[in-house]
Design a protein that fits this description.
Elements: H1 3-30, E1 35-38, E2 41-44, E3 50-57, E4 62-76, E5 80-87, E6 91-98, E7 101-108, H2 113-118, E8 133-137, E9 145-255, E10 262-268, E11 272-275, E12 278-282, E13 286-290, E14 297-303, E15 307-311
Parallel strand pairs: 4-7, 4-8, 4-9, 9-14, 9-15, 10-14, 11-15
Antiparallel strand pairs: 1-2, 3-5, 5-8, 6-7, 10-13, 11-12
Length: 313
Amino acid sequence: MSKTAKILLCVVGGVFVVGGILATIGFGLGGVRPVRFDGLRPTVLTDDATTTVNEHWDNITAVDIDSSIVSLKMIPGDSFSLTGSYPADLVTLDIHESGGTLRISSESQPRPWFLNIFNFGSYPFAPDKNYELVLTYPADAEFSSVSFVGDLGNLDVSSLRAKSLSARLNAGNLTGKDIRVDDFDVDMDLGNCEINGLDVAQRARAALNLGSLKLTSAKINDLTAELDLGSAVFEGTLWGTATLSLNMGEADLRLQNSEAELSYLFRASMGDVSLNGISKSSGVNSSTQSSVANPTCTLDVKTNMGSITVSTS
């Protein structure tokens, strides 16, 4: 082997060694960074890919969000404002106000389909960053409507007063506390809905394909809850008509209503429904019905292969 060839081999070997050392140090300092692919060319997302939001308005009466990727927190504040940041390499947000309605829409950057499945280079965008938008409003603010539609994201709401609150999520979470609305409508494919202090005056609907539903300290009129696979917990008072449909999983209804003021229909295909520790519907295609005069709530509960426990005050 010639001297020149030996020198070249030594240089190449040295480059590999130095590269390995730098890679190890980089992994130890920063971990795995999110990556965006333009065709087959990978691009590592950095701080330069962050878009900062700092908007203020005199008044907001409605919120309409339709975004492929977003995480939003709604909390009381001194004024109407939207602050925070999001990864511009993954999504472009259009934020504008018109006639008192705040609209946020987005266009995701193109990525290979398999990255969407594994969420590589996607939400939550980066392991060492907290990308989140925060919408504040005065404590006495009341919205005509709040609508949240997203493919992937989270919505966290606190001390909200609105005529209607609706959320459509393919994957994500809806959390909140102290929410008072006339109409409540949630539809989720994969995720969790957990709210403490939900007060619904007219109608409430919650549909989940896979996940969990937890409503505590709740006061709800005309509730419809549909859960395909997962768990549900309700703790509070029901009025009007309440319908719970559970395909597979477990549900626990801890009612502040008394048994004497309930009319109910319990049905089970291959599961079990119990009331105050007594099985009312168990086995194959079983049902139990009870009616009282002037009930505060008419309860319709059914399950295919799940277990539902109902307790009253």
